[in-house]
Amino acid sequence: MNEQAVRDKLHEQRYWHLLLHYQPSLFGGHTSEVDDPGFFLSENGKEDPEAELRATISFFFSDKLVGRSQQPAQCAFVARYHWLKEKLKFEEAKLPSHECERFHHWYDEFDAEFISMIFPSAFMGNPASMFGHTFLRVDPKGQTEQTRILAYTINYAAEVPPNPGIEYAYKGVFGGYKGFFSTIPYYMKVKEYGDIENRDIWEYRLNFSPDQIHRLLMHVWELGNAYFDYYFFKENCAYHILSLLEVADPNLHLTDQFHFATIPGNTIRLLFRYKGLVKESVYRPARSTLLKRKRSDLEKQETSLLPKLLNDPHLTERFEFRQLPRNRQIFLLDFASDVLRYKAATDQDKAEDYKAKNRSILVTRSQIKIPSPSFHVEPFSLSPDNGHNSLRVGEGFGWRNHEIFEEISVRAAYHDLLDPDAGYTQDAQIELLDLRLRYYHSRNQFRVERFTFANILSLAPIDSLFISPSWKFNVGMDTVKTSSCDLCSNGNINAGIGGAQETQIFKREVFFLLGEIDANVSGAYKENHRVGGGISGGVMATITPRWKWLISAGYLYYPLGDRSHDIPVSVGQRWTFAKNFAVRATFTHHDQDNEIFGVFHGYF
């Protein structure tokens, strides 16, 4: 069998490489991305596809227990077994007989009919979730819209100890944690993402045949014998979920589209490039989205009644409530119950009080023998397949302190407040590795104008239901002009926290006010540095779906190092004329420094 397998070059076939997660090595050959020694049946299996093929075939003719699950090889590695059996036509009589009850019981529990890709949107409250997340749901036969929440999921995540502290950052980036696949009921994931973290969830049913689903689940079972070193940017949840889809359908080339980073939203957009792969999309709103949409549907009188009802459920016995039409009573009671359940889940100190009030509301609601009508929830942000690509390239020109310049820029990821909004989390900005190169004509000088390592901003409008801080963090270098230096490179760290408020004067505006600290290191300053703080504020205004403004101003005072102050002002606007193409114009002012700049952006 071994000789026939080698003669047929099965170790070179794509499907064998997919099952073992082999990738081309930098200096030739292949290396598996699996890091668990128990996943390999050859001592050299991680780097040698042929040796692993020979060892696998040999173990199929053995009763020896293998892998972390300690089963016969036929049962521990069922996907390998079924593929090699098909290719080599094993003689059943010569093989040990194994029923593989554990696998079949696990497999039958799914009763799988469909596979759905699930995308919970980005969550700015957790660094690990700022780009979103992906996992699979196994939809059983006979499933309905009401029962799909009981289905099982296939999830990949890092095994992180409680309260990891600062080690979470460097271990997550540099592969310091082990990543495992797991199967968890979908209702637990909905509670975590939709109810607790308030993340919208998008569900994409994939057009897989029964045979493809069978291959995928067999390989998931095999991966119970494996862990991977978890890398936040590359080998993360999104990357390894794609590897499962490739096993289901080897004609899909998904993981090889991501060389440096795998962003979950980009993987969703990639699925839509394969015509017919996504059969349908379903939106599951977060609890906060449901509450906001229901609140906007309240009539003027109901808006004033709601706080009273939440504080005193016995308001339902009074005339001001009973005068409402019956359908509006139903709506207000349902909404009040939704709010109280949300408050009970998010405020543990007062949870019992909220639960008691909700019970009173439900008793009143039960006395109205009319079913609640369905309520359609429109998402605030569209599905990620509608979003621009995350790599941004720009070319523009401008004027700075009487000098004309040209600029080219490349940003590795991901989205800023003036980028096209569709498909991205509302009011959130994450920029990584943004490099801007500039040529000044009058001085015939080409220089690095700015490099942003990370620029993160979260605006969280405060209202009567939701109170969360707005915050920002930026680290990188830029170019400054001072009385002692015309254009000098400057290292900068900036952080701020504050609040935001939403209005609808035009289409939608978010006003914000932040207190911040600012530190700079540059030869342009006395003692080569300055450290201080101050305040900044502004407004982000969506005028039309294609036209957006961002205006900000502030005051910063630096008592440490170069004692000075700054009054930064920024005015920017963006016009989107296609999904992946936009233009913007900005004006910025700092002490002794003024700039006007226009740029064309393409997203790839």
Strand order of the largest sheet: 12-13-14-15-16-17-18-19-20-22-23-24
Low-confidence stretches: none
How many helices? 16
Helicity level: 25-40%
Brief characterization of the structure:
With 604 residues, the chain is an alpha+beta fold.
List keywords for this structure.
seven-stranded antiparallel β-sheet, 35% strand, 604 residues
Structure, described:
By secondary structure, the chain is an alpha+beta fold. It is built from 16 helices and 24 strands. The protein has helices at 2-7, 14-20, 49-60, 73-76, 78-88, 101-110, 167-174, 186-196, 210-222, 237-248, 264-273, 287-296, 300-311, 319-322, 326-346, 351-366; strands at residues 22-24, 30-32, 65-66, 71-72, 112-120, 135-140, 152-158, 177-185, 201-206, 228-230, 278-284, 392-400, 403-415, 428-440, 445-458, 470-480, 488-503, 508-521, 529-544, 547-561, 564-566, 569-578, 581-590, 593-603. The protein has a twelve-stranded antiparallel beta barrel. Helix 12 (287-296) runs antiparallel to helix 15 (326-346) and helix 15 (326-346) runs antiparallel to helix 16. The radius of gyration is 29 Å and the shape is globular. The relative contact order is 0.07. The mean pLDDT is 95.
